[in-house]
UniProtKB/TrEMBL annotation:
TM ranges: none
Species name: Salmonirosea aquatica
UniProt-listed SUPFAM superfamilies: DinB/YfiT-like putative metalloenzymes
UniProt keyword list: Cytoplasm, Hydrolase, Metal-binding, Zinc
Protein known as: Putative metal-dependent hydrolase
Pfam family, one: DinB_2
Length: 180
């Protein structure tokens, strides 16, 4: 992948896992997740179908697909989070995100459907995350494709990164095309 394509694909860089997250880092990461639906709504509020159907990078998803992906991904993350809190290190169900992005609804549905879904999932998820203590944040789930164990403190960091990662893909497209 060329450096230019890498920058378009990962405008904030790739996720960097840490061994531990401080209470302040966890709080900051929850705030990033909390803010995402409003940030997307503010950015995309006046976009027409032509803009929404523009790929954020060559051979990349359209902004429409990207928004639907974020809603799908965060919906799955919320369920996985709840499983980790109620079961002993459950093995989560993976899904084929690239194939989900190719389904008819991801390619044609109005983005407001996923923005509203994201808004309400995030309200519940943030409420849940803000109620957790250190023992809760140490709870884990297992990803079956890698066998890797994910503590919830890391999941919060991962989805804060995921939130900003995809927001910046749309935002930098808007900047490049002078849509601001």
């Amino acid at each position: 992948m060329t450096p230019e394509l890498e920058d378009l694909r990962y405008p904030i860089g790739r996720f960097q896992k840490k061994d531990q997250y401080s209470p302040d880092e966890i709080k900051s990461n929850i705030q990033i997740i909390s803010a995402l639906p409003s940030k997307f709504m503010n950015l995309l509020g006046g976009w027409d179908d032509e803009k929404l159907d523009t790929p954020y990078r060559p051979d990349g998803w359209t902004i429409r697909q990207l928004v639907h992906h974020v809603a799908d991904s965060h919906m799955n993350a919320y369920v996985r989070f709840r499983l980790a809190l109620t079961e002993d290190s459950p093995t989560i169900k993976p899904y084929m995100e690239n194939l989900w992005a190719e389904l008819p609804d991801a390619k044609s549905a109005q983005v407001d459907l996923s923005l509203q879904l994201m808004k309400y999932i995030h309200l519940r998820w943030v409420l849940l995350m803000n109620s957790l203590d250190g023992d809760d944040l140490a709870r884990t789930y297992v990803h079956p494709e890698t066998g890797r164990i994910y503590p919830l403190s890391e999941v919060i960091a991962l989805y804060a990164w995921h939130s900003e990662h995809h927001y910046q893909q749309a935002f930098t497209l808007a900047q490049r095309n002078h849509w601001q």
